[in-house]
From TrEMBL:
Segments of this protein annotated with the region Disordered: 1-43
One term of GO molecular function: oxidoreductase activity
Entry-linked Pfam families: Ald_Xan_dh_C, MoCoBD_1, MoCoBD_2
InterPro entries tied to this protein: Ald_Oxase/Xan_DH_a/b (IPR000674), Ald_Oxase/Xan_DH_a/b_sf (IPR036856), Ald_Oxase/xanthine_DH-like (IPR016208), AldOxase/xan_DH_MoCoBD1 (IPR008274), AldOxase/xan_DH_MoCoBD2 (IPR046867), AldOxase/xan_DH_Mopterin-bd_sf (IPR037165)
SMART domains from the UniProt entry: Ald_Xan_dh_C
Protein name from the UniProt record: Oxidoreductase
Aldehyde oxidase/xanthine dehydrogenase a/b hammerhead domain mapped to chain residues: 53-159
Length: 785
C-alpha cells in the first residue's frame, strides 16, 4: 500500500470521524442500555453537523483558480435527424474558450455503464428529449448558457416511437435494434389451471430519483495530460473507465474524486454529465465546472422504467395459488442502461413472495424515444409488486377471503423454490411479517369536527366533505434481491490502518446516505476496540469497491472492512498470545481493553499497540450467481429480503383525493447494526414509495417531458408523510452475509405503493390498476353502503 493512499487527505473533502465519547467495542451503555459504539449502537453519522450547518462540501460548492463554466446544448426533440451543427457563432462570443461536439471526442464516441450504446454527443440522430448535442466552456456561467443557445442545429424532425408496444414493429431506433432483452420464464406445467381465475392490466408510471442536491462537477486538467473529475459519483471506478475510453486515455491518467453525495436512490449522476466536463478541461487546459439546473437533471439522468403488466392468476377454491401467467413490458427509453437487470428482477419476482407451483412469464425491455430509464431503488421489483398484489386483492374479493389471510395461505418460506428454480436458502419470514402488520392495532378514526379538518384528504380549506370520506385498509408484501445478479462479480476491497490509537478505513465505497461510513466505523470499533475511527475520502486511486446499489456496501464493503479489521486484530494479539502461551482466540477486546479468558492477561489496546502502526487489506467476494437461461431458470441471486406493509388511507370518494393515515411495517433485516439509522432508512423508503403511489410521475407528451421541475413533478413532503409504525424487525441472520444483515431501504420502496393501492381499493371498491393513483380512479359515483 502506498504512503499516499495510506494518508489520504483532501482540502475539499472532510474525513468521516468518530463521534466523541462512549466505550469502544460495542459494550453496553450505562444501566444495560444499548451500546454507545460498535455494532448495534445508534452511532450518529459524523457528517450530520456539517450538513445541518451548510458547511459540507458538495460538488456545487467546488472552486478552482482560473475556473471556467460549462453548459450543454440539449435536443428540443425526442426524435430527429441532425442535418448540420454550426458552432461558429458560439465560438466567436467573447469569453467563450471552447465548443465541443461529437467530432471532438478523441476516443470512444459511445459509452454505457452496462451496455455501450449511448453517444457522448448526438451525431446523426437524436433519440430522446434532452439528448446532449454540444458543450461550451466560458469564463462566466451566463456566457456559457448564451453560447450554448447560439449553436445552430438544423433538424429533420422524425415521428417519435413513444408506445413501447409499438416498438416491436417500429423501424429500429438504434443500430442494436429496439428489443434490449426478452426473458421467457417457464416453470411447471403449462396445462395447469385453477378453479378460480382473475386477470388484470396494470400500468406503472415514470418515477424520477429526484436527487435534492444539484448535480454538479469539476474537471481539472493534470500536467501529465490527464484529468481529475470531482463529482458525486456512486460508482467512481466505472465512471473513470468510461470517461477514459471517451477521452482516448489510459484509466490511470483519469482520476475521479467523490465529493459529498447529497443522497442517492439510484445512479446519482449519469456519466454523460462528467464526460463533457473532462473534454472541455482537456481542450482548454483549465478547470471547468458544470452545475446542472433542475430541468437539466430531469432531462439527463435515468428514471424508473414505466411498465405495462398483464396478469392472470389461477387459484383453487381455498385461495391457494396454482399458476401465474404474466406479460411484462419495460420502457427503457432511448438506451439500454440497467434495463436488462431490471427486467430480470421483474420476471424473477413476478409472482411475489408466494408459493406458485406453475409460472409462465414473458418479459421484454424495449427502446423508445421516451426519456432514458435505468437504476432506481427497487427497479423491476416495485413494478411487479404493484401488479401481483392487485391480483391478490382480486382473488380475495372473488373468493370472499380476507386479503391478509389469502396472502398468509400462500406465503413463501425458507426452503421453497422460486419460479426461477432457485431454492430460497436465506431466512424468508414472510408469514411472520404479514401477521405482525395484520395484528397491529388500527389507528383511530378522525373526529368529524372543524378542528380536525386538516386530517381530511386535501387538508384545511379543501373542498371535501367529511361525509364523503371512506377509510380503507390494504396490504403489500414485497421482495428484493441483494447485491448484483446473474453472474455479476461482486467484490470490494478495504484497508484498515491503526496508529497512535486512531484507526483509518480506506475503501472506495461511496457514502450515498445508506450509512456505510458510519457502519465502517462501528465495525472497527467492534473488532479493534479503537474509539476514534476515520473514513478516508473516496477516489479512484483506491482499489474498486463497486456501485452503491442493492445493499452492496453493507454486505460486500462492510465484509471487506470486517476482514481487514480482523487481520489487524490478529497482528495486535499475536505477540500477547505468544508471550502468554495461548491462542489469539482466547483473547477478547472490549471497552478498549484486551483480556484473556482466565483473567491472567489484562491490558489496554493502546498499551498493546506500543506506538506500532498496524494495517491490513482484505477483499470480500460473495458466492457466485449465474445468468437466467433460455427458460428463465437459474440461481441468479445471492440473497433476498422481504417486507410487509399495511396501509390505512382515507379517500374522498367524491373528489378522489387520498390521505395516507398510517403505514405499519414489518421487515426482514437479518440483524440490526444501527437502530436509528435503520429506522430512518425504512421511513425514507416508505415515503418514497408513497410518492410513487400517489404523486410522482414524470409526464411526457409524444416523448417531450412536461414540466421538468419540482412544481410539475410532485414529491411528497413532510406534510404528506403519514405515521410510519415499524411494528416488527425480524432479526434472523443470513449466515452467508457478513454480520447477517440485509439491505434496508429498497424493499419498503417496493412494497409501499402496492399497499397504498390495496387500501384505496378497500375504501372505494375500484380496481386501481395504475400508479400513481389518479383522482378519477378513486371516485365512486354512488357512495358505498
Amino acid at each position: 500500500m502506498s504512503g499516499d493512499a495510506a494518508n489520504a487527505t483532501s482540502t475539499t473533502l472532510p474525513r468521516i470521524d468518530a463521534a466523541a465519547g462512549g466505550p469502544a467495542g460495542g459494550g453496553p451503555g450505562p444501566d444495560g442500555e444499548p451500546p454507545l459504539t460498535g455494532l448495534g449502537a445508534s452511532l450518529p453519522a459524523a457528517d450530520t453537523r456539517a450538513k445541518s450547518e451548510g458547511t459540507f462540501p458538495y460538488a456545487a460548492d467546488l472552486w478552482a483558480e482560473g475556473l471556467l463554466w460549462a453548459s450543454v446544448l440539449r435536443s428540443p426533440h425526442p426524435h430527429a435527424r441532425i442535418l448540420s451543427i454550426d458552432t461558429s457563432a458560439a465560438a466567436a462570443m467573447p469569453g467563450v474558450r471552447a465548443v465541443v461536439t461529437h467530432e471532438d471526442v478523441p476516443g470512444d464516441s459511445n459509452y454505457g455503464r452496462r451496455v455501450v450504446d449511448r453517444p457522448v454527443f448526438a451525431a446523426d440522430l437524436v433519440r430522446h428529449h434532452g439528448e446532449p448535442i454540444a458543450a461550451v466552456a466560458a469564463d462566466h456561467p451566463d456566457t456559457a448558457r448564451l453560447a450554448a443557445a447560439a449553436i445552430a442545429v438544423e433538424y429533420e424532425v422524425l415521428e417519435p416511437v413513444t408506445d413501447p408496444e409499438k416498438a416491436f414493429a417500429a423501424e429500429p431506433l438504434h443500430p442494436d435494434g429496439n428489443l434490449i432483452r426478452h426473458i421467457p420464464l417457464r416453470y411447471g406445467d403449462p396445462e395447469a389451471t385453477g378453479e378460480v381465475v382473475v386477470e388484470g392490466l396494470y400500468r406503472i408510471g415514470r418515477q424520477d430519483p429526484a436527487p435534492i442536491g444539484a448535480e454538479a462537477g469539476l474537471a481539472v486538467p493534470r500536467p501529465d495530460g490527464g484529468v481529475e473529475i470531482y463529482t458525486a459519483s456512486t460508482d467512481p471506478h466505472t465512471d473513470r473507465d468510461l470517461a477514459a475510453a471517451c477521452f482516448g486515455l489510459e484509466p490511470d491518467r483519469v482520476k475521479v474524486v467523490v465529493t459529498g453525495v447529497p443522497g442517492a436512490t439510484g445512479d446519482r449522476e449519469d456519466p454523460g454529465f462528467q464526460i463533457p466536463l473532462g473534454l472541455l478541461a482537456l481542450r482548454t487546459g483549465c478547470p471547468v465546472k458544470l452545475a446542472a439546473t433542475r430541468e437539466e437533471s430531469f432531462l439527463g439522468h435515468a428514471h424508473r422504467h414505466p411498465t405495462l403488466l398483464r396478469y392472470r392468476h389461477h387459484a383453487d377454491a381455498d385461495g391457494r395459488l396454482v399458476k401465474v401467467e404474466a406479460q411484462i413490458l419495460l420502457d427503457a427509453g432511448a438506451y439500454a442502461d440497467a434495463s436488462s437487470e431490471s427486467l430480470a428482477a421483474a420476471v424473477a419476482f413476478a409472482c411475489g413472495p408466494y408459493v406458485v407451483p406453475h409460472a409462465f412469464i414473458e418479459g421484454w425491455a424495449v427502446r423508445t424515444n421516451n426519456p432514458p430509464s435505468g437504476h432506481v431503488r427497487g427497479e423491476g421489483a416495485m413494478q411487479v409488486c404493484a401488479a401481483y398484489e392487485g391480483q391478490m386483492d382480486k382473488l380475495a374479493a372473488k373468493l370472499g377471503i380476507d386479503p391478509a389471510e389469502l396472502r398468509l395461505r400462500n406465503a413463501l418460506s425458507t426452503g421453497d423454490i422460486l419460479p426461477t428454480g432457485q431454492t430460497v436458502t436465506c431466512p424468508a419470514p414472510v408469514a411472520e411479517l404479514l401477521q405482525a402488520v395484520r395484528d397491529h392495532p388500527l389507528p383511530a378514526l378522525p373526529k368529524d369536527s372543524p378542528e380536525d379538518d386538516w386530517l381530511l384528504p386535501g387538508g384545511p380549506e379543501g373542498a371535501g366533505e367529511p361525509g364523503a370520506i371512506r377509510r380503507g385498509v390494504g396490504y403489500g408484501v414485497g421482495m428484493v434481491h441483494m447485491l448484483g445478479a446473474e453472474g455479476t462479480d461482486e467484490v470490494s476491497t478495504a484497508t484498515v490502518r491503526v496508529h497512535d490509537g486512531v484507526a483509518t478505513v480506506i475503501c472506495a465505497a461511496v457514502e450515498t446516505g445508506q450509512g456505510f461510513s458510519t457502519l465502517a466505523r462501528q465495525i472497527v470499533q467492534e473488532i479493534l476496540g479503537v474509539d476514534e475511527v476515520h473514513v478516508a475520502p473516496v477516489d479512484t486511486d483506491q482499489p474498486p469497491a463497486g456501485p452503491a446499489t442493492h445493499g452492496r456496501h453493507t454486505w460486500v464493503s462492510g465484509g471487506a472492512v470486517e476482514r481487514a479489521a480482523k487481520m489487524v486484530r490478529t497482528q495486535l494479539l499475536q505477540p500477547l498470545a505468544h508471550k502468554f502461551g495461548m491462542s489469539t482466540e482466547l483473547l477478547q477486546i472490549a471497552d478498549g481493553k484486551i483480556t484473556s479468558y482466565d483473567g491472567v492477561l489484562s491490558t489496554t489496546v493502546m498499551e498493546a499497540m506500543d506506538g506500532k502502526e498496524l494495517w491490513a487489506t482484505a477483499q470480500c467476494r460473495p458466492h457466485p450467481t449465474e445468468p437466467l437461461d433460455e427458460s428463465g431458470q437459474g440461481d441468479a441471486f445471492v440473497g433476498l429480503a422481504f417486507c410487509a406493509v399495511r396501509a390505512v388511507v382515507d379517500v374522498d370518494i367524491e373528489l378522489g383525493s387520498v390521505r395516507v393515515v398510517e403505514m405499519a411495517v414489518a421487515q426482514d433485516v437479518g440483524r440490526v447494526l444501527n437502530p436509528a439509522q435503520l429506522t430512518t432508512r425504512i421511513e425514507a423508503g416508505i415515503t418514497q414509495g408513497i410518492g410513487a403511489a400517489l404523486t410522482e410521475n414524470l409526464r411526457t407528451a409524444r416523448g417531450l417531458i412536461r414540466h421538468p421541475d419540482l412544481t410539475g413533478y410532485a414529491l411528497p413532503t413532510s406534510l404528506d408523510a403519514p405515521d410510519i409504525r415499524i411494528v416488527k424487525l425480524v432479526e434472523e441472520r443470513d449466515v452467508v452475509a457478513p454480520f447477517g444483515a440485509k439491505p434496508a431501504s429498497a424493499v419498503p420502496v417496493v412494497t409501499a405503493p402496492a399497499a397504498v393501492a390495496s387500501a384505496v381499493r378497500s375504501a372505494t371498491g375500484r380496481p386501481v390498476n395504475r400508479l400513481p393513483i389518479r383522482p378519477q380512479a378513486a371516485v365512486v359515483t354512488a357512495p358505498k353502503g
